[in-house]
Amino acid sequence: MKKWNQFKLLGDGDFLRAYAREHDRFICPYDLLTGSDIGLFENLEAARKEEQYLICAMKDVKLGSAKGEKLYKIAPQGLYKNVFACSAATYEDALELWNRKMQQTAKNLLKPIPQRFLAMEMEGIFINVLGWGLFVLMLGFIPFVYEFLKENVLLIIFILLCSNLEHLFMRSYGEEIPRRTLDLWAHPPKDKFSEGVYGQMLGEWEDLKERHARALPYYLLWKRGQLRGAVEEEEAAEPEPVPVQSEPDYRDYCREIRTRLKEQLKAIEEQRSKISDRSVRRYVEDILKVLKEIQRAVSLGASDSQVIGARKVVTYWNEETLSLLENYLLLSGNSSQEAQDTQSSIAGLLHEMTPVYRQELGRLTAGRTLEIKASMAVLQKEIEETLHMGK
Description:
Helix content: 55-70%
Largest sheet: 6 strands, antiparallel
Number of strands: 6
Strand content: 5-15%
Number of helices: 16
Order of helices and strands: EHEEEEHEHHHHHHHHHHHHHH
Oligomer: single chain
């Protein structure tokens, strides 16, 4: 089998972003659709010169090895047509294609949902209709099959359409991306590097990755009645300072964080009870110990800022931990070597999660520690003044 999709990494996202500054050239700094970092690759066995260099999201490739050298292949979830849309004979041309692709993606996501769906799915619809059409055409030479197809032509067309409409139940079409972000990507600088635009894009990067992680399929977003709220959020300008009268909203938000933290603690404890491996159980117990300390730190006596500071633990790290535990238990019923290796990798990640939680705990309690030190300094001063007056 021809190894036509083996790539050597020439530079990661940091390299490309530094290249943009040094050469005063704009490069879209990450993948808009997923928030994934990007990489510049060389196709080692390119069939054509136009496929020599490639820029794509790192999520679209997977790491392998050959003769001790790190080589990448297109990952199963990466569609070849999407990856090779940014390949060219020189990496300068590949950069131009990458910028053009990201700009067009942003413009597509700015469209109303019917046009957006067609723009994102049109190629898939065409491929499905063409592939199934050829298949039906071949079967049409069989007399009784031809009669069946003729009688059920409308049903067949409906099934073909459904093969793409199902994506409405599986994919997000950019509702989680703020409109101001899409506007920025849809109208980037033509050639010259812009420190201001880069700073704004990279400043929103972490938030965008979290939004992608929490993104819902379009149907669920509509079903839950959240579509209007998402659109309003997109159209909102820069966040304004929170007025004093909105304190009840903060209290509600703090209450929600505490409630979710309590529910997640219970869920993690339930998952731990199902694990038979003692080492892994101990890793989860260590995580739970730190989480309980975090829960105490954001108890009812804590300030609003401390509670809100714990939102990253609740909305990100705990969800990641629960996902790891769920996959670990899912693989427990599989006796293959691959499943065992994957479980070992998950166990290693769980072991590394405890320091992360401790770091979050330290961040939450740092402010309180400063408050106590300040209070002690004031008290000490009052004591000295009182003693001085008594002399």
